[in-house]
Write a structure and sequence with these properties.
Helix content: 25-40%
Largest sheet: 3 strands, antiparallel
Number of helices: 3
Number of strands: 6
Structural class: alpha+beta
Distance between the termini: 47 Å
C-alpha cells in the first residue's frame, strides 16, 4: 500500500525500504501501544481477511498541547467503497467512548478532496491552516466529543 505512488501522493513520501518500514512499525507498537494504549490499526476486509489499509490515532504536540489525530489510509482499489468511513467512525467511537478524549484533530492536504470530504462526513470541521512536519501548510480539522450534558 505504501509503495503505491497514487496512495502516497498526499503523504509526502514513499517508504525507503521494507526494512525501514518494519522498524517504523516496531517503534510505533512500542511507543503508542505500550505507552499510550492506542495507535494505528490494520483495516481488514472481512470477506477475505485481506489487509486493505490502516486507520487509527496518533499523538502530536501542537502549540505545546497534546493533541490526538485520526489518521486513515487505504489501498487505492478500496477507495470510494465506504471502508475508510466505517473505520473512521469506529476509531472516533474508541477515542471518545473508551479514551474519553474531548477532541480529535485531522491534518488534511487541501488538495486531497477525497480526504477533505471524508473528514467532513466523519463530522470534523475546518479550524485553521497549519504547518505540519514536512507536508507544509495543511488544513486542520477538529471534531469535539459529543456533549453529555442534558437539557
Amino acid at each position: 500500500i505504501y509503495s503505491d505512488s497514487e496512495v502516497m501522493k498526499y503523504m509526502n513520501s514513499i517508504p525507503e525500504s521494507i526494512e525501514r518500514e518494519e522498524e517504523n512499525i516496531r517503534n510505533h507498537i512500542h511507543h503508542y501501544y505500550e505507552n499510550l494504549g492506542f495507535g494505528l490499526w490494520a483495516v481488514i476486509l472481512k470477506s477475505s481477511q485481506k489487509l486493505i489499509g490502516r486507520c487509527g490515532l496518533l499523538q502530536h504536540t501542537l502549540n505545546e498541547h497534546k493533541e490526538v489525530e485520526i489518521s486513515y489510509l487505504l489501498a487505492q482499489k478500496y477507495w470510494g467503497k465506504g471502508y475508510a468511513r466505517e473505520a473512521g467512525f469506529a476509531v472516533i467511537a474508541f477515542a471518545f467512548e473508551r479514551l474519553k478524549l474531548n477532541r480529535l484533530i485531522a491534518f488534511v492536504n487541501p488538495n486531497n478532496i477525497a480526504s477533505v470530504n471524508l473528514a467532513k462526513r466523519l463530522g470534523f470541521s475546518f479550524e485553521s491552516k497549519i504547518e505540519y512536519k514536512s507536508y507544509g501548510l495543511v488544513d486542520l480539522y477538529v471534531k469535539r466529543a459529543p456533549s453529555t450534558d442534558s437539557i
